[in-house]
Amino acid sequence: MKNKFKRVLTNIMIISGALLTLSISSLSVASTSDTSILSSWHDGSSKKVIVNFVTKVTDKNASSFVKAEDRIAVFDNDGTLWAEQPLYTQLVFAIERIFALAPQHPEWQTQQPFSQLLKGDIKGALSGGESAITAIVMAANAGMTNEEYASIVQQWLAKAKHSTHQKHYAQMAYQPMLELINYLHDNDFKVFIVSGGGIEFIRAFSQDVYGIPSERVIGSTMKRSFENVDGKNVILRLAEMDFYNNNANKVIAINSHIGKRPIAAFGNSDGDLPMLQYTSDGKGESLSMIIHHTDEKREWAYDKKSHIGHLSKGLKQAKTNGWHLVDMKNEWKTIFK
Asked: Does the N terminus or the C terminus of the chain have fewer Cβ atoms within 10 A?
């Protein structure tokens, strides 16, 4: 009788264990198909690739597991996190700043590219190419402290609207990418912005728009000086480029600021290729994705022929290196925030 009772008890424990295992397994399956994950993404290849990658690197029992301190993800900004057409947001800001500062600079009335710009000929002013754009950006973004500059940017963003969509620029952020950032944060990734845009310009809104703190923004820098002004020690912004954070410089900046190789990288143009290459060449699991602008109705469709966000080499290298192209038109349920 005693032995029979033991056998019955043992069978109950085995059955209970099996039910518990089945229950846990069912919960696990349910979590991977959770509709709350990346809800603005269609259940297509891109969403699957992202979820599978995150699952692999966060599974402690898998050989692909990556410690939380090494889960580094880097994102380009313009064209990857928010719209960059028809002009980069920071360039629009710089142009409007030139008009605001013009009364203090009468010499601009006869100096190019400022003269054309102040006459309303924006296309003509920008036809001077990189040198003209640099002159405009330097003049508009210098001559104040970092704190004053952040305040100027924030005030401008609070009022300025995109010329095509008539939305505030914060609303031109891509909703699917905001969800992706949150998803990575929820899985203990450290998320960084690595942009060709000005570092202080992006820092002025990165927390509010993307939920990314200012210390995790890497961008182009202007030369600065440490001065005592009116009894206060401040950092003054000078009208000269210090470091242009694009192409290979993005990798150098990642090494300098982060000191670790990312395991996930997201970009949209050929200027992001070195960052994607650096990420995919690392050991273990990695994810390199290119946001491909294919939606001419809700946003814009552009790649090889565009002077902004030019993407040509990236289309070829994506196939060669096994990177994933995100088709905005067919894979995103919604575009903007």
From this structure: N
Judge contact between 286 and 280, C-beta under 8 A. yes
Cα end-to-end distance, the chain, whole Å: 69
What integer pLDDT is reported at residue 127 of this predicted model? Answer: 92
Provide the 10 A C-beta neighbour count for residue 107: 8
**pLDDT, position 36:** 82
What is the Cα–Cα distance from 279 to 265, expressed in whole angstroms? Answer: 6
Structural contact between residues 79 and 197, judged by C-beta atoms closer than 8 angstroms: no
Q: Is the dihedral of CA 320, 54, 255, 74 positive or negative?
A: positive
**Positions in the chain whose pLDDT score sits under 70:** 1-34
Contacts of 102 (CB under 8 A, 6+ apart): 108, 114, 118
Residue with tokens 């100096």: 111
Dig out the tokens for 107 from the structure: 């010499």
Which residue has tokens 């990658």? Answer: 53
Can you spell out the DSSP letters for 286-305? -EEEEEE-B-TTTS-B-STT
